[in-house]
Structures are given as structure tokens and as C-alpha cells.
Design brief:
With about 325 residues, the protein is an all-alpha fold. The chain has two domains: about 35-130, Farnesyl Diphosphate Synthase; about 145-315, Orthogonal Bundle (Farnesyl Diphosphate Synthase). It is about 60% helix and about 0% strand. The protein has helices spanning about 35-50, 55-60, 60-85, 90-105, 115-125, 130-145, 150-160, 165-170, 180-200, 200-205, 215-220, 235-255, 255-260, 265-285, 300-315. It starts with about 35 loop residues before the first helix and ends in a 7-residue tail after the last helix.
Length: about 325
């Protein structure tokens, strides 16, 4: 489930309210929050999303699962602030308040359950503050920018919106070192790009466009041309350019799947294989991706995990640290 405000405060009409998300407010009556209760709160937020790769998370240690739940709760809530309609008009104040709480957390002054949990797991695993700040910076950019002039600017957005997540996972798994960090950045950027191309039918009508303007110009396509019931004549070529770039990033990051020790090899292997499978669906859908969103079935996701487990068994087990 997603965190939602539970008791919006009364306010003067036209005056934005942060409600229970305001500094000093808590999402429920359970205060003060113990680390254990706060971690359970984060796990409840994350549990429904773990179902895609339950075996992967089941093979992690409990402290690792708890840490990833806290990271997820932080990012999920901030993403909702930047994207969900109910927060329209107060998006950036909410993100500013979330950053204030983050900085307080790293001073050891957490009160909100997400940050009480985060304070606990950051101490356990030595999580740095910078990836969290980069994520917030990307969420603020979502509030301000709807189009990107160049592919380089899209990659810069991915550097802050996607790569920090992979880096935090490596910290949780005790693998935060080069060249693994660099490989992780490539995989995470590829995943983010894949999501952009997968979501074209959703994002374009909302006015959000991650296809670089320079690439649209190259193929003689105007942004408004993407809204028709038929794809522009050269859209297939444009899509092929973007998917080829994305596939190259997946390939550059693939060594991470075998270099990471267990359970990182299975986690990153599942993420990599799942991302490549979605990219293949986008390629197979072609220009129709402007009209419908391709997605992997649960059966396909399960097959990816089973394939990884069988592959590891044939190779004599996972690499361990």
C-alpha cells in the first residue's frame, strides 16, 4: 500500500496545507515510534511491491530486507508527493519538508516512522545521505520539467532518479565498491529509460515527455504528433534509436549480475533480466506503444526467477563473499 495523509487539517480556502505531512506531524497516533515499529510500518508500505520477486527478497537476510523496506518507503512517499494528483499545489513544500526530515534523520533526530526506520538501517549498513538527496532533487525536477532537450539531459535525470537506488542496494548488501557501482549505474539508467519507453501511452497525454526534443527534431516529429491515433511516419525509427541505446546500457551493466556475491547476484540478475524482458516487449509493440502500455505478466516474472535459480544450480551455486 501507499502512504496517504490520514487526517487533513482545516485551512483557509486557497491556502496550501501539508496536513499530517508537515514538519512535526506524524501519520498516526503511534508516537513515539520505536525502531522496530517504524520498520514494520515501512514493510507494510513495501510488501505489496515485493510480490514481483518474492524469492529474491526471501533469500536476503532480515536486516537487508528491513533496510530495503525503509529505503522504499522513503522513495515511494517522495515520489507520491511529486506525482499524485492529491498533492497538486503543495508538491515542492512537501518535498522540502521531507528533505528537512531526512537531514534531521542523519543528525539522529528522527520522529516520523519512515525516518526512525531509516535512521536505524543507515547506522547498520553505513548508508550515505547523498543518494537520498539526489532522489529528492530528481523528484523536484519532476515538478518543474515536462520535456528534455537532449539525451544527455535525460541521462542526467536518470543519474539522480534511478542510479541512487542501485547504489543504496549495494550499500545494504555490503557491495558498494567499484566496478560494481558503475555497473549498477548503467543497469539502473537502462531500467529508467525502459520505463520511459514503456509508459509513453501514459505520459504523453499527461504532457510529460522523456523522448529528447533533439531526437524528435531529427526524425521530423513534433510532440503534438504523438497524440494522434496513428504514430508519426518515422516514429518507429525514433523508438528503435532509443531502445538500442537502452540495450547498450543493459549490456554494459550485465557484469554486475555475476560479480555481485549472493544474494546480490540473484537480485541484480532478476532486475536485469526483468528490465531486458520489458524492453523486448517495447520493441515488439513498436509504434503501438503510443496507444498501449506493454507489461510483463506475473507468469513471465516468475519464469525469470525460476530461470535464475536453475541457472545458479547448474553452475554449482551462488558466488559468496
Amino acid at each position: 500500500m501507499r502512504a496517504r495523509p490520514t487526517s487533513p487539517e482545516r485551512r483557509t480556502p486557497g491556502t496550501p496545507s501539508l496536513g499530517p505531512w508537515a514538519p512535526g506531524s506524524l501519520p498516526s497516533r503511534h508516537a513515539p515510534w520505536t525502531p522496530d515499529a517504524a520498520i514494520r510500518y515501512c514493510e507494510a508500505m513495501a510488501r505489496s511491491h515485493y510480490e514481483n520477486f518474492p524469492v529474491v527478497f526471501g533469500l536476503m537476510t532480515r536486516p537487508q530486507r528491513e533496510a530495503l523496506a525503509a529505503v522504499y518507503a522513503f522513495a515511494r512517499t517522495a515520489d507520491d508527493f511529486a506525482d499524485e494528483p492529491e498533492f497538486d499545489g503543495v508538491r515542492e513544500p512537501l518535498l522540502d519538508a521531507w528533505e528537512d526530515r531526512l537531514r534531521a534523520c542523519f543528525r539522529g533526530e528522527a520522529d516520523h516512522p519512515v525516518f526512525v526506520a531509516l535512521d536505524e538501517v543507515r547506522r547498520r549498513h553505513g548508508l550515505p545521505e547523498r543518494p537520498f538527496l539526489d532522489l529528492l532533487d530528481a523528484f523536484r525536477q519532476d515538478c518543474r520539467e515536462q520535456r528534455y532537450a537532449t539525451f544527455a539531459s535525460v541521462l542526467d535525470y536518470c543519474r539522480r532518479s534511478a542510479n541512487p537506488v542501485g547504489r543504496l542496494v549495494l550499500h545494504v548488501l555490503g557491495l558498494a565498491r567499484e566496478p560494481l557501482l558503475g555497473w549498477s549505474d548503467r543497469v539502473c539508467t537502462a531500467l529508467q529509460l525502459t520505463n520511459f519507453w514503456q509508459d509513453l501511452s501514459v505520459d504523453v497525454p499527461r504532457g510529460r515527455l522523456y523522448l529528447p526534443v533533439e531526437d524528435l527534431d531529427r526524425f521530423g516529429i513534433r510532440p503534438e504528433d504523438l497524440l494522434g491515433r496513428e504514430a508519426p511516419p518515422r516514429f518507429g525509427e525514433l523508438l528503435r534509436l532509443e531502445t538500442e541505446r537502452t540495450r547498450a546500457l543493459f549490456d554494459e551493466g550485465r557484469p554486475l549480475c555475476t560479480a555481485a556475491v549472493h544474494p546480490g547476484c540473484l537480485y541484480f540478475g532478476a532486475v536485469w533480466a526483468g528490465g531486458r524482458a520489458v524492453l523486448a516487449l517495447v520493441e515488439a509493440t513498436g509504434p503501438a506503444v503510443l496507444l498501449r502500455r506493454p507489461a510483463l505478466s506475473r507468469a513471465a516474472l516468475a519464469a525469470i526467477v525460476v530461470g535464475l535459480l536453475r541457472g545458479a544450480g547448474r553452475e554449482g551455486g551462488w558466488k559468496r563473499g
